[in-house]
Amino acid sequence: MENTKKNWPLWEIFVRSKNGLEHRHFGSLHAADAEMALENARDVYTRRNEGVSIWVVESKHITASNPADNGELFEPAQDKVYRHPTFYDLPDEVKHM
Amino acid sequence: MKNLYNYILTIADNSLILAQRLGELCGHGPNLETDIALTNIALDLLGQTRSYYQYAAKISDENKTEDDIAFLRIEREYKNCLLVEQPNTHFGYVIGRQLLFDVYHFMFMEKLQNSPDETLAAIAKKGIKEVSYHKRFSSDWVKRLGDGTEESNAKMQEAIDDLWRFTDELFFMTEAETTMAKEGIGVDVSTFKEKYYEEVSEVLKEATLKVPENKYFTKGGKEGVHTEHMGYILAELQYMQRTYPNMQW
After folding, report:
1. InterPro entries recorded for this chain (chain A) (predicted)?
2. pLDDT tens digit sequence for A25-52
3. Looking at the 3D structure of chain A, how many domains does it have?
4. A83 part of a folded domain
């Protein structure tokens, strides 16, 4: 608790770089509250015209998967090639698949 | 033309010197986020300064460049107000100085963007969005520090009390300003003096700070009579151009 009093909490910053695109994780920074996190994000991550919208979320609200569980979480998907749409011929007109 | 030239410098020098002061903090901000925020503001101001100086250079009859105007004048020829040259004593001073200038700067730009002088109006129209953010940043911080801990409140109050005496000069009009205002090109700053003090007082009250009551004000910068700090600022600002004339990179 002592530590949290002295340091501002950490925030994760998501920036939408263009209308129509999704918000993407840009990085993290420290701020005392959400409003300051937005302003800091504006200054740290969008000063070269990178964004049109910013989301901030306090890092403690993010639940992350445990790297130790990677085996059971992700490995079963590795040998199931039929889950990838690689057996279809895609017409040239369809882009970004 | 002389009046317009001087008028442009009166506006631009404020931004140049404040940018230089903020630039001193690059790498020395209280934390990474605030450091970048302050240097962003410095760069905004410097960008505005360049537009003004380019315009001044264009109408100058002495074949000057924007760099000559920025770097090769002597102290008495700089027309910035005393407020912007005050030192970064501590973070409270940086933020206090910023608030006292930003509120003025925003109201000034609001008027300047309606100037019939197309260049000045265009600079103001572009700059007002930047200045609007500067004001938001500084008033937020004044509120945080004023309404923060006992120590931050005391430091913020100290800075405001100390800088208050420079606020009146913002509304002092030099000959060039009076003439340009009369011609309808420049801004008559006296028209928003009352509004300025109202808005600053509102921020201070919200920050649980006392609005200073002292009626002693000082001025001189706009006529070239600066405080003892100015020489040091210029020494640093001008060093490269004085030592290596015409150098570029």
Report:
1. PaaB, PaaB_sf
2. 999 999 999 999 999 999 999 988 888 9
3. 1
4. yes
Rounded to an integer, what distance in angstroms lies between the CA atom of residue B105 and that of residue B40?
17
- The complex's ipTM works out to 0.75
The answer as to whether A49 is a domain residue is yes
Say how far apart CA B91 and CA B111 lie, in whole Å: 30
SS3 A73: helix
Contacts (Cβ under 8 Å, ≥6 apart) of A63: none
Residue whose structure tokens are 């102290």: B75
CA closest to A41 among chain B residues: B33
Size of chain B in residues: 249
Strand partners, B149: none
Nearest 10 degrees: CA dihedral of B243, B42, B87, B234?
20
Q: What pTM does this model have? A: 0.88
d(CA B179, CA B53): 20
Q: Does A31 touch chain B (CB under 8 A)?
A: yes
Q: Residues of B with CB below 8 A from A47's CB?
A: 36, 40
When pLDDT is averaged across residues A67-85 and rounded to a whole number, the result is: 82
A 10 A CB-CB count for A48 gives 6
Q: How distant is the Cα of A30 from the closest Cα of chain B, in angstroms?
A: 7
C-beta of residue B82 within 8 angstroms of C-beta of residue B21: no
Task: Return the structure tokens found at A41.
Answer: 């994000």
